[in-house]
Amino acid sequence: MKKSIIIALIFSFICSFSACSFLPNGKMPTVKKKEPKQSEPKKVSQSNYNMTEATLWDDSHKFKVIYPQIEGLSDKEIEQKANLQIKNTAKSVFDGMTSFEDRTITSNYKVMLQNDQKISILFEFQTFQTLQAHPLIWNETVTLDLRTGNRLSLKDSITVNQKLVDAFFTVFHNVTPYDSNEKETQAAVKKYVEEHLKVEDLVTCDSLDNAEYHSYLTKDSVGISIYVPYAIGSIARFEAKNSALSQE
Fold first, then answer.
1. Whether the Cβ atoms of residue 236 and residue 225 lie closer than 8 Å to each other
2. What span, in angstroms and rounded, lies between the C-alpha atoms of 103 and 36?
3. Is the pLDDT confidence value at 218 over 70?
4. Contact 202, 164 (CB under 8 A)
5. Among residues 222, 225, 219, which one has the least CA distance to residue 244?
6. What does the pLDDT read at residue 91?
7. HEC string of the chain?
8. 131 near 139, Cβ under 8 Å?
9. Average pLDDT over residues 183-201
10. CA 188/CA 193 separation, integer angstroms
């Protein structure tokens, strides 16, 4: 008798467990796992920082370069990291110069983009030394993520591949300010870039291994500065709208 009662209780327990463990269709219920929350990058407000100017001199204290600096970020470590990279970009105008005699150096900069997450700066450099056939003119750029202080390259902003190279003149347009002969110069620049542009040039854009290609950002575009022969302007700047790039 007791044995029958025990068997009945066990059977009842099993049936109750089965009813709780299975859906009416006989399938086990799906248990949703809670996804871990992703940590958001730090955000800063544009109203919380300003742009100031600093001055950098060469070793002989003959030439100076004026460059921008960030002031007022809540994270001072990020501020210091970003400012050092801007300073080093400005300082690059003196790289490789062993003598400053009979030489002139001019520099300028433009803040191409400034918002609460990114800042992008274009430097314009020119040097000339006695007996040189012509001045040396080039651009340097620095684009920074203000949430981390990290430097961004072209491939951090857009997809770089052979498809982009093939469609380069479809999405990118020459925005170089020419003094004269604009049509002839633009045609010559286009021919030069078409003959020389390779996907590797865009992949390594902004790197130490590539001194001829530098990128920058504007509020609605991605820009690329390309070093070209002096006879056709030394520098050619191309920009593509973000909307056009998203379709490629």
1. yes
2. 60
3. yes
4. yes
5. 222
6. 93
7. CHHHHHHHHHHHHHHHHHHHHCCCCCCCCCCCCCCCCCCCCCCCCHHHCEEEEEEEECCCCCCEEEEEEEECCCCHHHHHHHHHHHHHHHHHHHCCCCCCCCEEEEEEEEEEEECCCEEEEEEEEEEEECCCCCCEEEEEEEEEECCCCCECCHHHHCCCCHHHHHCHHHHCEECCCCCCCHHHHHHHHHHHHHHHCCHHHHHCCCCCCCCCEEEEECCCEEEEEEECCHHHCCEEEEEEEHHHHCCC
8. no
9. 95
10. 9
How confident is the model over 73-128, as pLDDT tens digits? 999 999 999 999 999 999 999 887 766 677 888 999 999 999 999 999 999 999 88
Residue whose pair of structure tokens reads 């327990």 in the numeric block: 13
Q: What is the CA 57 to chain-centroid distance, rounded?
A: 27
| pLDDT, tens only, 6-22 | 444 444 544 444 444 44
Looking at residue 100, its amino acid is: F
d(CA 90, CA 88): 5
Angstrom distance (rounded) from CA 54 to CA 15: 80
**Token couple for 66:** 């004026």
Task: Classify domain 46-245 by CATH architecture.
Answer: 2-Layer Sandwich (3.30)
